Amino acid sequence: MRTDQMALVAFMQAGSTSVYAGSWRHPATEHGYLDASYYAKVGRQLEEGCFDLMFFDDRLAMPGIYGGSVDEAVRYGARPVKLDLSVILGVLAQTTSHIGLGATYSTTYYAPFHVARTFATLDHLSRGRAAWNVVTSVNDSEAQNFGLESHLGHDERYDRADEFLDVVAGLWDTWEDGAIQHDRASGYYADPGKVHELGHVGRYFSSRGPLTVPRTPQGRPVILQAGSSGRGREFASRWADLIFTGDPGIDVAREHYSDQKARIAATGRDPSSVRICPMAYAVVGESESHAKEREDMFLNDLVDPMASLTLLSELMNYDFAQHDLDDPVTDELIASVSGIRGLVQNLRAHIGGDKVTVRDLAGHRATLLQGPRFVGTGTQVADQMEEWFTSGACDGFVMAATHSPGSYEDFVRMVVPELQHRGLFRTQYSGSTLRDHLGLDRPAGALTRSAS
Predict the structure, then answer these.
(1) Binding site for FMN: which residues?
(2) Binding-site residues, please?
(3) In DSSP terms, which residues pair with 51 in a beta bridge?
(4) Contact present, 309 and 359 (Cβ < 8 Å)
């Protein structure tokens, strides 16, 4: 029997839709995504529900793989808008006081020093609530915005990412705790013996250091990661504090959970120190029938097939414009498109058959079936979440919004009290940092030398 409590994370978008591409068409969606007050409002709502963390997804390009053009993304609202997350989190650092604040930054298109400084600064300004969602990016459109013709291969991206994390973690440790003295009388600002050069020279990166930001309240910001391939799982096992998964069913999730915990242990880390949280969607109603009606409207009726194909092309880095919607997904197609095999397997498991069309695949992705849907009253949704949490499938959930901010309003009003009543989730924040919320230790610095 578990004695810990689940983690709850809000999966955010700083743009025109939630993770569900049809959400902008929902009548209750607020189109305030270009206004700072919108993000502050959502942050305060999530704090009312005692969420551990809100983190923002990102892409560094408008979807433009489908047909070699961004026209479909713009026409159908397939996530054409993505704001700068450092600015959004700066707003939230000032307008919230407890919830963790996370952003997605790429190890392929940013530099380690830049990322280390950004998240160290956020950790100070938020008083210890920063998190970095590590990605290697997904497609050629992003590469072409950074002066490259094509995206790096899968294994090379992870080779770079491993070294990138080594450099960032090292830079965060270049200041020891207690380095700053602020002795006005003597003019002694900080102890040089507690500030270190990094001196990293590697295959992909060189960084002298020290970082220009002192050691942060958390020691190191929390690391999130969502690798699903074998290499991705190994990477997450080495680096992540919270692993974000996409398992559509509880049996698959249990297998993933067991495998990931074993991989974490194999690195020499304590498996209980890493939270594993699948992305999930809650559609809550005043009655079960009301919830099912909302599910049809929220998730099944609002997304256009062309928007679905546009986003599928972006995700797979493959132009699906060369196929008709009703073309079968063949073994040849599966073999030729990196990353598609797992999506097809999940879809086959969901529909209970082997025959899958391009339309099926696009709809499966667009209507959020790659993670569990929890549908029902607040009590029924809490029942489903409790089953996952107590049966070895997860340590919590990354909750995606069907529309914003109403989806989170419903969840906080109807589901969170049920989870709290059962002792599955906190009733108030007991610590001040994100590491406190997640039950994570503050890491010791790796660099020390005797003061001269």
Answers:
(1) 58, 104, 154, 158, 228-229
(2) 58, 104, 154, 158, 228-229
(3) none
(4) no
Q: Which residue has the tokens 């210890």?
A: 128
Q: How far apart (Å, rounded) are the C-alpha atoms in residues 218 and 205?
A: 25
Domains of the chain: 7-298+370-438 (3.20.20.30), 304-366 (no CATH)
Judged on CB neighbours under 10 Å (0-12, 13-18, 19+), 449 is exposed
Q: Which of 199-203, 220-224, 350-354, 392-396 has the weakest average pLDDT?
A: 350-354
The mean pLDDT value for 379-402 works out to 97
CA angle, corner 72, sides to 86 and 330, nearest 5? 105
> Is residue 28 a contact partner of residue 406, using CB atoms and an 8 Å limit?
yes
Tokens for 253? Answer: 């999730």
CB 117 within 8 A of CB 213: yes
Sign (positive or negative) of CA dihedral 94, 99, 104, 105: positive
264: confidence class by pLDDT, cuts 50, 70, 90: very high
Confidence grade of residue 451 (pLDDT, cut at 50, 70, 90): very low
pLDDT at 248: 80
Write out the two tokens for 166: 């080594």
DSSP-derived secondary structure for 95-140: H-SSSEEEEEEETTTS-HHHHHHHHHHHHHHTTS-EEEEEE----H
Q: In angstroms, rounded to a whole number, what is the distance separating the alpha carbons of residues 330 and 103?
A: 36
User: What are 1's two structure tokens?
Assistant: 């029997």
Report phi then psi at 10, rounded to 5.
Answer: -95, 125
Q: How far apart are CA 444 and CA 244, in angstroms?
A: 25
For 377, what's the count of Cα atoms within 13 Å in the CB-facing half-sphere?
A: 7
Residue 114 structure tokens: 């830049």
3-class DSSP state of 85: helix
Contacting residues for 288 by C-beta, under 8 A, at least 6 apart: 376, 377, 380
